[in-house]
Write a structure and sequence with these properties.
- This protein has about 130 residues and is an all-beta fold.
- The protein is about 0% helix and about 45% strand.
- The strands form 2 sheets. Strands 2, 4, 5, 6, 9, 10 and 11 form a 7-stranded mixed β-sheet that branches. Strands 1-3-8-7 form a 4-stranded antiparallel β-sheet, with no helix packed on it.
- A hairpin with a 6-residue loop joins strand 4 and strand 5.
- The radius of gyration is 14 Å and the shape is globular.
- The termini are far apart.
Length: about 130
């Protein structure tokens, strides 16, 4: 399995921006769809965004559409989540996850059960 490592979380004021990074060192990184999830205290883990192997397909939760952008750099084995116009309700631990899909270049999912390897998470706190 491809073990991802998240970074880039922190404390930001409402309306601010953060960029999360997820590095996954493996020669076959471009065989994996990638997903970002988050979990707030007392809530279930939810899908935020996903991106296909080739980057052509992306999905977003309704709550983040127009504010968050997912991207990937297969040459650097890294996926990013650019988060703009952050709101207090975006406060959560953000997790990166990988799903091997060697035969589906345009597939991605925001269902936790579709992902087999998870990072340790990075805390994002939006507060004034």
């Amino acid at each position: 399995q491809l073990q991802p490592v998240e970074s880039g979380g922190g404390l930001v004021q409402p309306g601010g921006s953060l960029r999360l990074s997820c590095a996954a060192s493996r020669l076959t990184f471009d065989y994996y769809a990638m997903g970002w999830f988050r979990q707030a205290p007392g809530k279930e883990r939810e899908g935020v965004s996903c991106i296909s192997r080739n980057g052509d397909s992306t999905k977003y939760a309704d709550s983040v559409k127009g504010r968050f952008t997912i991207s990937r750099d297969n040459a650097r084995n890294t996926v990013y989540l650019q988060m703009n116009s952050l709101k207090p309700e975006d406060t959560a631990v953000y997790y990166c996850a990988t799903a091997p899909v060697p035969y589906a270049r345009n597939w991605c999912s925001m269902m936790t059960n579709d992902f087999g390897s998870w990072g340790q998470g990075t805390q994002v706190t939006v507060s004034s």
